[in-house]
Amino acid sequence: MFEKLGDELNAAKSLNNIGISYFRLKNYDKSLQYHDLALQKRRQMGSGNEIANSLSNIGQVYEAKQQYEKALEYYLESWDLNQKSENIWNAANNANNIGKVYLGLNNFPQAEKYLEIASQLADEIAAK
User: For the domain 8-127, what is the CATH code?
Assistant: First the structure.
């Protein structure tokens, strides 16, 4: 419907929400399908925060599928965008997710590094 109205922003949000719904139903392949569509639309619009959100959502799906290397790829791209836009809350969430993925990969030094960054960013948020 939003696409017919030329409302790409809400079309992307709807695709993202469908992806989240499939994720909650543990239908990870369908979730990825919709998150990928949302990401494509968001890249076309050039919305950095929305792109970072989609990347993080895709990372979560791959993490749930225990495809940690793939999850890490998406989380790191999201992390980079959130740092550039100084979105501290989302960067903290990214750092936490990256730390968890490194735990899944048994890379404990990197896990500790990113979990510490997440903790520091959370402290920074709480101080505001």
Answer: 1.25.40.10
